[in-house]
Amino acid sequence: MENFFKVKEHGSNVKTELLAGLTTFMAMAYILMVNAGMFSNLGVVSYNAIYIATAISAVVGTFLMAFLANLPLGLASGMGLNAFFVYTVCFTFGLSYANALILVLLDGIIFIILTVTGVRAKLFAAIPDCVRIAIPAGIGLFIAFLGLQNSGLVVDDQATLVNLVSFNLLNGNATWATIMPLLVTIFSLIIIAVLSAKKIKGSVLWGILGGTGIYYVLGFTVPGFYNNFWEGKSLNPFEAFSEWGTQAFGKIFTEGFDFSHYLANHTQAELIIVIATSALAFCMVDMFDTLGTLYGACARGGMLDENGQVPNFEKAMLSDAIATCAGAVCGTSTVTTFVESSSGVAEGGRTGLSSLTTGILFFIAMFLSPIASLIPGNATAAALIYVGVLMMGCVTDIDWKDVTVAVPAFLTIAFMSFTYNISYGIAFGLISYIFIKLFTGRVKEIKAFTWVIAILFTLMFFLTH
Q1: How many angstroms separate the CA atoms of 85 and 92, rounded?
Q2: Where does the pLDDT of residue 334 fall: very low under 50, low under 70, confident under 90, or very high at 90 and above?
Q3: Burial 427-448 (b: 16+ CB within 10 A, else e)
Q4: Mean pLDDT of the chain
Q5: What are the pLDDT digits (tens) for 216-225?
Q6: 3-state secondary structure 99-164
Q7: Is-contact 335 61, C-beta < 8 A?
Q8: CA gap 311, 314 in Å, rounded
Q9: 171 class by beta-carbon count within 10 Å (0-12 exposed, 13-18 middle, 19+ buried)
Q10: According to the model, what pLDDT value does residue 254 have?
Q11: Structure pTM?
Q12: Of 13, 133, 187, 198, which is closest to residue 399 (Cα–Cα)?
């Protein structure tokens, strides 16, 4: 293995690579529970089925990164893209779970073509810097909002649309049974923050596990909490594989091309526009996320080459694209390179031996689904909120003093979170950028492909929304 991955040549050793791989897994493992919990909201696929789909796609993607690109990076279903899949494509646009998997497959195929042909660079250059930089922040705020809603801390309010849930025990609006899970989310978030501040490896995972412990300890204080606790639960890990095989695996081929449910209330033109714009949104977010992670993680570890480029860059992008296609077949959303991989790089990981270790640990985790299913949604909600915190950091790179930059960036962030839709944020960022540049006499700064993308989004608004 040392010779295959050229560990010594990269200034590392086997022990360091193994520890780095373990660190990356600890930082990424939360995605197994969070992704499964998010997809289970669809009602057509179970927690266990998506848990297995997430684990298998993570294994495939991370192994590809190890053997094809020889980089110490982990891959799994991307945060933000999974929310876009569930809450925008399925709930807002009205496509089915299997239909949405088609869009993920298109994302992977497009990504492969763009990578092989070199068009990827032109597409990346067409997105204005102010919008590109703002995308992670918008996704982060959106994800944090989902976490606040999933935990029950933020609730629907007819007067203000959103409001804080009641903690009032005196007037009967709240009881200890309703407040206890909310406190679990708050405590879990505090644990994650404290452990992160102390540089503890896997702080998000430990925060989720700590919150789970608090949840079950406090459960003794809630009357009837443990009544029929084991009903419907099983400690057999192979039942999860069975659910995955019947509910998720291959659904893209057996049901994905059946759009009759959508067409019952929409026209074929609307369907074409939704598919085109959604696939584009999947591809753009996936591309920017992967590019940012590759450069960020490799720069942190001093792994960039003499030209400041990521080593084996095209192979790394290809690994990501192939993994996305595999994820679609398995039944989960877009697979992307995780920014949490930076934790393993910080521990000294420099080669694919590190990511191979991470992939093996994801494989082992597939057989722990019965344990993972015991983790409450209030604990994983804290992870969503914290991921939002991490993704907001890019706003410091936006020139807020330049209005032509600040407005598109702000609209990108605001529309993602306030409209519950990632693609709407990208659309309003691009469209506002074009109009501001146009009316300030700087039309030459607008690239040709930027116009094309903006027109596609405009058609989506006028024909489908």
Answers
A1: 10
A2: very high
A3: bbbbbbbbebbeeeeeeeebee
A4: 87
A5: 999 999 999 9
A6: HHHHHHHHHHHHHHHHHHHCHHHHHHHHCCHHHHHHHHHHHHHHHHHHHHHHHCCEEEECCCEEEE
A7: yes
A8: 9
A9: exposed
A10: 94
A11: 0.77
A12: 133
> Residue 452's Cα: distance from chain center in Å?
26
Nearest to 336 by CA among 84, 22, 16, 6: 84
Q: How far apart are the first and last CA of the chain?
A: 53
**Tokens at 192, concatenated:** 């994650």
**Of 72, 74, 76, 98, which Cα lies nearest the Cα of 85?**
98
Instruction: Tell me which H or E stretch contains 405.
Output: helix 403-418
Tens of pLDDT, residues 283-301: 777 776 677 677 767 776 6
Interatomic CA distance for residues 326 and 364, integer angstroms = 19
Residue 332 has what pLDDT?
Answer: 96
Place of tokens 């940012």: 292
Q: What is the pLDDT of residues 153-174, one digit of tens each?
A: 999 887 888 899 989 888 767 8
Q: Rounded distance, CA 28 to CA 146, Å?
A: 19
pLDDT tens column, 48-107? 999 999 999 999 999 999 999 999 999 999 887 898 899 889 998 889 999 999 999 998
Q: What is the pLDDT of residue 258?
A: 92
Closest CA to 62 of 43, 46, 75: 75
**pLDDT tens column, 239-297:** 999 999 999 999 999 999 999 999 998 888 888 888 887 887 787 777 766 776 777 67
Q: From CA 310, how far away is CA 294, in angstroms rounded? A: 7
Kind and range of the H or E run holding 336: strand 335-337
- Tell me the average pLDDT across 143-156: 87
Residue type, 87: Y
Task: Tell me the C-alpha to C-alpha distance, in Å, between residue 77 and each of 195, 324, 330, 360, 455.
Answer: 24, 8, 11, 17, 29
Residue position matching structure tokens 């690239």: 447
**What's the rounded Cα separation, in Å, for the pair 166 and 262?**
38
> What's the DSSP call for residue 267?
-
Phi-psi region for residue 348, left (φ > 0), alpha (ψ -120 to 50) or beta?
left
Encoded tokens for 315 = 């192979």
Question: How does 274-308 read in b/e, with b if 16+ C-beta sit within 10 Å?
Answer: bbbbbbbbbbbbbbbbbbbbbebbbeebebbeeee
**Which residue type sits at 153?**
L
- Of 439, 349, 413, the residue nearest 141 (C-alpha): 413
Angle (CA) 352 357 362, round 5°: 120
